[in-house]
Amino acid sequence: MLVRLLYCSRAVNASGDAVEAILREGREHNPSCGITGILCYGDGVFLQCIEGGRMQVSELFATIQRDPRHKDVALLHYEEISERCFGAWSMGQVNISKLNHSTLLKYSEKTELDPYSVAGKVSLALLKDLAATAAICGRS
What is the pTM of this model? Predict the structure, then answer.
């Protein structure tokens, strides 16, 4: 059974090295668990979608909730799926600083990433749009 989980959190340490460490760990861990996804980071906020088997996704989300590098972890959306949207990436990365602000305005009141203020399906639509427009930096 495949599932998709979307969550957001705030970075405890917003340095580039801290974000890179999270991406590196995901890219090393996820393939062996059959997990794929996409991570968007900007202004100290993570928006991440993970897809894979129900138990693997649930275990990863529990790990993220306990990870001291994240705070204010919020589940935005969870669903059973028949196919993946982000299957091409063990963990694709969106560089929010290089985005056209009109893309964010399409889904939000402001030109900054704030998944806490919109519906989970809206944040998922944003990630799908970013993936479709090739705004993904890391493809591994």
Answer: 0.87
